[in-house]
Amino acid sequence: VQLQASGGGLVQTGGSLRLSCASSGRPSSNYDMGWFRRAPGSEREFVAAISYGGSITDYADSVKGRFTISRDHAKNTVYLQMNSLKPEDTAVYYCAAVWGRIGRITRTNYDYWGQGTQVTVSS
What DSSP designation does 102 have? Predict the structure, then answer.
């Protein structure tokens, strides 16, 4: 699976962005998809995940209620809608994929990674 993230940019505090992650190669419908981010000087951290069927989602506490993950199987694309952005959301955002498992999604051990897209939130 090859992943291509896009949609990053510069936005003011309180603004919104929508990130996209397009997949190619194997059908993404068999994979759970996740978003992660890495801020300067920090470790990469989990942001959100969605199950291969789209019925299960998971969010980091820091983004819960502000970010929404979704997927469009017909387009082989996963989205991360980010609202009420804060300066601490500034980071490079990565999408990732792992073979789906029934009834659960994971925050770790993803097998495939995209190249990242920069999100900068100005105060």
Answer: T
Question: Residue 16 has which token pair?
Answer: 């919104």
Residue 106 tokens read as 């994971």
Cross-strand partners of 80: 19, 69
Structure tokens of 88?
A: 């601490």
**Over the stretch 39-63, which tens digit does the pLDDT of each residue have?**
999 999 999 999 999 999 999 999 9
Quickly list H helices, the chain: none
CA–CA distances in Å: residue 38 to residues 90, 102, 103:
9, 29, 28
Per-residue pLDDT at 6: 98
Paired tokens of 86: 């804060």
